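Troubleshooting: if your tokenizer reports a length mismatch, compare your output against this known-good record of 620 residues.
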Amino acid sequence: MKINVLSAEVYNQIAAGEVVDRPYSVVKELVENAIDAGASEITVEIVGGGKKLVRVTDNGGGIEHEDLPYAYFPHATSKLKEAKDLFGVKTLGFRGEAIASIASVSKMKITSKTPAGEAHSLSCEGGKLASVAPAAGGNGTEVTVEDLFFNTPARLKFLKSDSQEEGDVASMMARFILSRPEIAFTYLSGGKVKYRSFGDGLSAALAAVYGADILQNLYEINAQKHGVHLSGFIGNRNYFKPNRTYQSLFVNGRYVVNQTVAAALTNAYAGYLMKRQYPFYVLFLEVPPEIVDVNVHPNKADVRFADNQIIYGSVYSVVSSVLDGNSRALEYLASTPTVASATEVAVLEEKAPIKQEVAFPRAEMSYERAKKELQFEIPIQAGRGSVPRRTFNDETTLEVHAPSPAEDAFEENKKFLLEQEKKKQQKLDPATLAFKGELFRTYLIYECGNDAYLVDQHAAHERLIYDKLREKMERRTVVSQPMLVPFVLEVNAQEFAFLERNFTLLREIGLEIDEFGGNSVKVSSVPSDLTSIDLSAFFAEILASYESLRAIKLADLLKDKLASAACKAAVKGGEKLSEGEVRALLEKMNGDMGLKCPHGRPVAVHVKKSELEKLFKRIV
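Known-good structure output:
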């Protein structure tokens, strides 16, 4: 076997697969460089979802013209000098891989000027450098990336649509605005301004990203716990979102998705969350650099803590105290909790009548002492059918004893076969069923040989109407009815891209939906059979499907809505039916006694003659 030494062109393209996989990751790396350069103003422009163009301009310190070639070299960086520096990383970038990786799969140009120097530029196409040349430009750096993956078509074809890529870039920019509220950001897509912030604080940054109305639903916290500083905003007890795209965590200024912190927050909100609801939060976790490892993920998307239990316990105790309104909550709320309602503040003050000025001691508690204290603060939550034990490893998960995939598959197959066999036995010829009367104006009684069937007239009629409505949906024969006042839904960039991708399907089921400027959509018409549909709840259910990143089946999402419409239209229990109506209902059921209503209740109950005789002691 011959061992080959790869060329720089090849290994940079391999590295690009780890560091730069999509346009949003290009934006991420370039903006992080601008932040590390000390910029106070950063402008990001993209075209074609970032596939055609990404341009990042900043007013930072700039690059000396003689250093421009080194910017393209792999593992060349201004942020580290020695290996020991890895244990105290304070910058967002530090590996020196990003520029070299991006340049190897694009047409890239860097123009930069230091305060004391002249502007110069250097281009690179597919990893091949040109020469440094004088250029026009102000202080700072402008990086232009064109035709991403032009020389690696295999990667290019796996990129998403322009709107989906733009949604992910917009999401990344929203988090930059939130993570660096002291920096003025401008983000443009296709020449249109999508986000603009002015570097005037976190409240203003939240308003720039989510709208000013959001502030009235949030608590602002600022807490010191066991040497961990936690600050930012969390949703109140009644403010939730349909997916996790509204959750942002920044550890020492770096956006990460961390299971330890996520578990602490989810458990803190557990008593207030309903199904398919997720808490809103924008939180900043500051810990000493030496107890957090930022070098554990290729694109720095996660970190590893020296002690997960300390982190979990600190976050959980602070957030749960604020949500539950216990006496310690006032210690954790920001000194001017302007976002909490007057009622909520009054409740907190009543529970802690002696309000003291908040002072956060900097003395750190030892891990040993903190662990003892946290034993009384961390809840144990049991999963269904399990005896869990919380373990504080890198993932901070609950240990759950669950059936193996093979066992699950076997049980599902067995259940399916039994149901199919049962259905065969419950299908009868309507002509063999003799109507014998009704009970309580709700249950219709039929006799067939030595068997009796009690049919719930409401459940049966409800199922028949539901099947008719669903058939119309599936055949695309839905008639739409215009709304007097259009329904307008404001979403974030990722959710908008998700909805836009499904506009055609939504229109096929009778919803006239269109873009309404920015990240808003407008619904002008609804299916005529569902005029009373709760559009807020319906779209919340659709957006909850975003979390799984699966293609959604809108006919399935409409099941509950169709069931509600069928329920309202069906005959009710206690309503007297004529003989003709009873006969028509049985005919439409086609003798199927195994039907269930859309809510899962049985339509008919089977009683054998022998069972009745046992009740009357005729047989034993």
